[in-house]
């Protein structure tokens, strides 16, 4: 019988706000619940969304009233979240607190308080940060603070893992790489003519497959139009691509500050009939836009994972992308053409992709099944479950971390001999103290105050007085399907 | 194209895929993962936790790009790495053919646990300090003399104030010598400019540079008030739009605003802005807010004329230059007289400006203002209009405000007038002259530095030496020696320290940094 856990996902970013982190949390929670765990989500209150909400599958969301300062990140007060957090955790009998996104203040506070309360903590990092500018230095210091005492960290790509290990000075062994996934059912390629009737393609004919020599190739770009999404590259490359390849057109979806540059480019080069700009679209519409094209162009300058290129490949599009961040790890080479983040190279790579498609050398119709077998949320949930098992001692430390149990020298100082990180206050203080000459002392002070608040709360609102919340009936996992789970 | 092998391995049936994905599964087929397979090698190191980045990592290997082995700390454990991996590979191959090499890919179903850290590929793209340029000692010292110059001139100003305040120096002599030095500086300047305009326009390339210097340094020729205040808003020097200027200079004092508005006209006309050149009324309409709007109108008109003259001397070159420069000198003298009388008229007001404030507040305030002046001063010395935030104008404004509040502590009108005029000379005109002297010749720069250090040292010595009537020069000499020593120590010590700190430099670059896009065909719709 596999152990099941009560898990609290904590992040500032959750629905109704759209986004990658948000859907990651939702999908992962749903799949974990399918595997018999109990999952709740703690986020801050959004407009018109306060209190407790239930989503599909009995997923419970706590919207904590909190002061939002910038792009739905809450104000960092370090301690003020503790009383309510403790109440929720005790009420829901949480064992594991799982925070998401390094810019989410709520998640960092929750990790600190959870460790004070003696819970296991996991952190998932979704983004890449540099080391150069002042904002990154501050963010990295805070990340180091909250990750000093975390039990395990999950990163979405190997590049992201390297980045996080460096930023927070972590033991690489306590960082797992578990990629994002896509719901392949939502990104099926264009298949039957009936669908064409359902989705109006406007004046354009549906994408021709297989391609004749004079059929129009449609290149799709779906991204927010920001600098770090490479919109400048796109703006420079589009006229040249269209000039080199007569029967091509672009569909660009998304909005942002750089949209005006694109529009100017279109007007300057009189490309109105070959570049279609859709403005911002909802996530549900992404697939409908994607299936109108043959090639997906992704000119981003930095990307931790790049879910959108997986979605594009799942829709049967040939992917042209810049070789930055975690992107080279995401898709096999037969689905992608990589370009350096340079205008010339991007134009050349797109030309190569168009030529390959014209020669019908790329079996795009197979992409969907292949992507489906590569990425699934169930797989992500299983791998996350192994992390939970590892940190809570359900699988031995030697197995989880790959220790040689007989060799005492191989014990890491960050973990005790119990196989898991010790909760003793003095051990925790030791870990925080190493964060820096001044920062270490400051962090220790914060931890001590947090502990005092915890003691105070234990006296003021005793555990016995807090109601226990009745659980949603749990799903049972079919054990025959999981022979390996212990 | 055939799908790579990783794909075939990932079976579609839930049974097999689950067992594959499950981390516990390798247990059945493979030996227990030993730490040597997954963990950094140098466990026997003296560091408590070798797998963490320790502070030593930041500078132990200062030599730029580091090799992949991040965790070997230099005691040969890097060599240990390879054989061990080989051995593991051999072993695993003999037991099972299915265990593949670890790949840094996400789409492949790997037979390694998720937290497996591959020694060979982990952090292989990490670069450390790839673009660091080491400092050299002597150039660093030479560059830091610019800061020394400025600090010394601030010290000289303070010493003069203390002298006037303690009534040990007559204010007339201070301002007299100051004005004399300014006059000499102006003559020198005029001579240099004359020299340059003779050989400047002959060939093309030096002309561009000469033009730049003209534009930057023309105001000092015109003299005092507006010369100095040119430094107020360097961002405005090249702006064709004069209306940007009043916002750049905060109107901390009316005194500052008055000459400042005056200098729009020349700076606008420098850029060949014909409209503002021909319509002086349009230019000075902005100076209405200043007290001296009436007088500044006339002067602005005069300035517009002189600006035109100087513009023509700068751009058209030698032929008309003699007449133009004479006209320019006349304009300069006019504006100098104007400033002189303006200050004279303002002095009684300034004298009683802060009567209700206690002296302690004034000392503290002027300390902070002068500190702002020093820290925000434009040591770069080239006004290319690239400033986003007008820090240099902040600096000069702070200094003039400091001088105003200090002057308001003085008992008599004459003293107030002297100190204010002197402060305009020191903070407004002198920096411009220093920059020009430095560009002109390195020898002048060194000479000026030495003079300033000696002057500041002497002044401080005399002020601190107390009221010793018969031996004031002895204190002054001691001050000079000590000043020279301190400045030499500071220059050498700080430079050496900065070079020493370079070993802590630890810039990290890797694939996670946002790429810098290379765009060749710069969009031509930008430049409109």
TrEMBL record, chain A:
One of its GO terms (biological process) is GPI anchor biosynthetic process. The chain crosses the membrane at residues 438-457. Residues 213-349 form the Glycosyl transferase family domain. Keywords: Glycosyltransferase, GPI-anchor biosynthesis, Membrane, Transferase, Transmembrane, Transmembrane helix. One of its GO terms (molecular function) is phosphatidylinositol N-acetylglucosaminyltransferase activity. Pfam families: Glycos_transf_1, PIGA. Gene3D superfamilies: Glycogen Phosphorylase B (3.40.50.2000). Residues 44-133 form the PIGA GPI anchor biosynthesis domain. The keyword Transmembrane applies. Pathway: Glycolipid biosynthesis; glycosylphosphatidylinositol-anchor biosynthesis. GO terms for cellular component: glycosylphosphatidylinositol-N-acetylglucosaminyltransferase (GPI-GnT) complex. The keyword Ribosomal protein does not apply. Catalytic subunit in the complex catalyzing the transfer of N-acetylglucosamine from UDP-N-acetylglucosamine to phosphatidylinositol, the first step of GPI biosynthesis. This is Phosphatidylinositol N-acetylglucosaminyltransferase GPI3 subunit. It comes from Immersiella caudata.
UniProtKB/TrEMBL annotation, chain B:
GO terms for cellular component: glycosylphosphatidylinositol-N-acetylglucosaminyltransferase (GPI-GnT) complex. Residues 239-255 have a biased composition (Low complexity). The keyword Signal does not apply. InterPro entries: Plno_GlcNAc_GPI2. It is a multi-pass membrane protein. Residues 84-97 have a biased composition (Basic residues). Residues 1-25, 256-278 have a biased composition (Polar residues). Its main location: membrane. Pathway: Glycolipid biosynthesis; glycosylphosphatidylinositol-anchor biosynthesis. The chain crosses the membrane at residues 137-165, 171-189, 331-350, 362-379, 416-437, 444-465, 477-499. Residues 1-97, 199-279 are annotated as: Disordered. Keywords: Glycosyltransferase, GPI-anchor biosynthesis, Membrane, Transferase, Transmembrane, Transmembrane helix. Signal peptide: none annotated. Residues 215-225 have a biased composition (Basic and acidic residues). It holds the Pfam family GPI2. Belongs to the PIGC family. This is Phosphatidylinositol N-acetylglucosaminyltransferase-domain-containing protein. The lineage of its organism: Eukaryota, Fungi, Dikarya, Ascomycota, Pezizomycotina.
